């Protein structure tokens, strides 16, 4: 399985993402610059964390107009898995590929520490290797992870089981309903604030993030086997 | 020359943690009459006098980039600037 790791000016978790896929998962990964105009040769797209274009105006607001984002939309339309982590999640929200928006953390502080997450939906292509309601340890590192959406959108998210991860025991940033990660209605776009790519080896303090990438590979292999 | 002044603010239904912190600070200074503080952004865009469809243009810019309609409201004023 071949993963594209998108690199925006300011991305700084791209190398962690690449390492997670290449060295820990044992799959193929390549960096793709934000001004590239094709993602055809890739099976999945990873939008890494960090920053993008200085995050002027709002986080991800300028990145969403990068040429590569047209290709991300096309890849999403044909059902390829798209994973946006941290700034990647913010870009997906700004692009309208996921509903809602990010606000500054309630505490106004940048928070960088491991948190507990609960897997609310283990029936997505990103979470099938987890057990339902399993509590996992994944680090967060953000100043704007305070997820917001209106009540109607929240009701839709709940009705469609689109909330995949929630903060467990404490809510670090004030996000509504403790939301840490959501998928689109079709289920092939996941946005999450915590960094699974930073939790892929016990040496890093946790290997709980690896199952997320393994879920993606498993789904891809199964659909590939069916199609050939 | 035309100057467009754009004001972007968080929607009233959206909690403004920065505004809340500033309000508390003002109240601690003794300004107890302050009931609420909302922090927003102010932008100035400059156009040539003969810019066509300025209203449509500015609205599009606000809807797509300058503001995020999910959490923010915007308003703008168009001013003629006389160059001396």
Protein architecture, described:
Chain B: It is an enzyme of class 6 (ligase). The complex is a heterodimer of chains A (228) and B (84). By secondary structure, chain A is of the alpha/beta class. Chain A has a single domain (2-227), classed as Class I glutamine amidotransferase (GATase) domain (Rossmann fold), CATH 3.40.50. Chain A has helices spanning 14-25, 67-77, 87-94, 151-159, 210-227, and strands at 2-7, 28-33, 44-47, 82-85, 101-103, 111-119, 135-142, 146-148, 163-167, 179-183, 189-192. In chain A, strand 3, helix 2 and strand 4 (82-85) form a beta-alpha-beta unit. The longest helix of chain A has 18 residues, at 210-227. The radius of gyration of chain A is 16 Å and the shape is globular. Chain B has 84 residues and is α+β, with helices and mostly antiparallel strands. Chain B has a single domain (2-80), classed as Phosphoribosylformylglycinamidine synthase subunit PurS (Mth169, Chain: A, 2-Layer Sandwich), CATH 3.30.1280. Helix content of chain B is 30%, strand content 31%. Chain B contains 2 helices and 3 strands. Chain B has a 3-stranded antiparallel sheet, with helices on one face. Chain B is elongated and about 50 Å long. The interface between A and B is medium-sized, with 21 and 13 residues.
């Amino acid at each position: 399985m071949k993963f594209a790791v998108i690199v925006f000016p300011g991305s700084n978790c791209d190398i962690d993402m690449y390492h997670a896929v290449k060295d820990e998962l044992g799959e193929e990964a390549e960096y793709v610059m934000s001004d590239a105009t094709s993602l055809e040769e890739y099976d999945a797209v990873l939008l890494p964390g960090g920053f993008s274009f200085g995050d002027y105006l709002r986080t991800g607001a300028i990145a969403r107009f990068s040429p590569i984002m047209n290709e991300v939309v096309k890849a999403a339309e044909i059902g390829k898995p798209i994973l946006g982590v941290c700034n990647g999640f913010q870009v997906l929200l700004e692009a309208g590929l996921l509903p809602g928006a990010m606000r500054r953390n309630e505490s106004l502080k940048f928070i960088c520490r491991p948190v507990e997450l609960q897997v609310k939906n283990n029936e997505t292509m990103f979470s099938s290797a987890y057990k339902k309601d399993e509590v996992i340890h994944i680090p967060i590192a953000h100043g704007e992870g305070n997820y917001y959406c209106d009540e109607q959108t929240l009701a839709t998210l709940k009705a469609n089981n689109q909330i995949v991860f929630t903060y467990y025991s404490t809510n670090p940033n004030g996000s509504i309903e403790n939301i840490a990660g959501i998928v689109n209605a079709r289920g092939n776009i996941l946005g999450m604030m915590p960094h699974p790519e930073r939790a892929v080896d016990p040496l890093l303090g946790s290997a709980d993030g690896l199952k997320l990438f393994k879920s993606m590979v498993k789904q891809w292999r199964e659909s590939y086997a069916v199609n050939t | 020359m035309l100057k467009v002044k754009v004001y972007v603010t968080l929607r009233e239904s959206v909690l403004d943690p920065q505004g809340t912190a500033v309000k508390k600070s003002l109240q601690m200074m003794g300004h107890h009459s302050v009931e609420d503080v909302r922090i927003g952004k102010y932008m100035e865009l400059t156009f040539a006098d003969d810019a066509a469809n300025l209203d449509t243009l500015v609205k599009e810019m606000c809807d797509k980039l300058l503001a995020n309609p999910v959490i923010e409201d915007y308003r703008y004023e168009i001013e003629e600037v006389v160059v001396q």
